[in-house]
Amino acid sequence: MTLEAALTGVNDHLRGALPPEIFEVLEADRRRATGTKFAQVGARIEDFTLPGADGVPVSLGDLVAAGPAVLVFYRGQWCPYCNLTLRTYQQELLPELTARNATLAAISPQKPDGPLPDLEFPVLSDVGSTVARGLGLSYPVSAPVREAMQTLGTDLEQVNGTWELVHPAVVVVDQDRALRFVDVHPDFVTRTEPADILKAL
């Protein structure tokens, strides 16, 4: 099964599980137009150091020390689409990246004080979305979506420190800190297939 098919299955389940008015708000949000200009292949990303979920800080320099880095920007641990994607990447992508001297890291705006994710690669907290904003990935949550999320029990003010999210994205950074692959998904139900990441490498 492709990642896309699995994510569609999650969305179909939520369609039946959530109140219709809530699901309609979220569906409208995933199909909204965005005029944002995202970072392009060839651009350079500034070095950064972010705290890990385990409390250990990790820099971009650390991630590209032995080869390219695959950076996965995601919305947070509360997002079922993100959790499925990260588990899929661990199972299908991580061994292939290790064989290619490439590293994998996940980055979200979530504060580093939540439960430790059950993942075998760094999970970093970009609180304030500094790194994500530099790539054009950060955006404010609209009032209807904010109300819907609060109804479902997700208060981003507590989880992230701000009502701001990031577009899910995968970027590949080489050892010169240049972007060699950029794939952004304003439709948060979709994600980058592992095969496409390997092809980019």
Automatic annotation (TrEMBL):
Biological source species: Amycolatopsis iheyensis
Top-level division of the source organism's lineage: Bacteria
Keywords, sorted A to Z: Antioxidant, Disulfide bond, Oxidoreductase, Peroxidase, Redox-active center
Location of the Thioredoxin domain: 39-201
Reactions mediated catalytically: a hydroperoxide + [thioredoxin]-dithiol = an alcohol + [thioredoxin]-disulfide + H2O
PROSITE patterns on file: THIOREDOXIN_2
Purpose of the protein: Thiol-specific peroxidase that catalyzes the reduction of hydrogen peroxide and organic hydroperoxides to water and alcohols, respectively. Plays a role in cell protection against oxidative stress by detoxifying peroxides and as sensor of hydrogen peroxide-mediated signaling events.
MF (Gene Ontology): thioredoxin peroxidase activity
InterPro entries per record: AhpC/TSA (IPR000866), Peroxiredoxin_BCP/PrxQ (IPR050924), Thioredoxin-like_sf (IPR036249), Thioredoxin_domain (IPR013766)
GO cellular component, one term: cytoplasm
Similarity comment text for this entry: Belongs to the peroxiredoxin family. BCP/PrxQ subfamily.
BP GO annotations: cell redox homeostasis; cellular response to oxidative stress
Pfam families per the UniProt record, alphabetical: AhpC-TSA
Family annotation (PANTHER family): SLL1159 PROTEIN, THIOREDOXIN-DEPENDENT PEROXIDE REDUCTASE
Transmembrane segments: none
Protein name per its UniProtKB record: thioredoxin-dependent peroxiredoxin
Primary enzyme class: oxidoreductase
E.C. no: 1.11.1.24
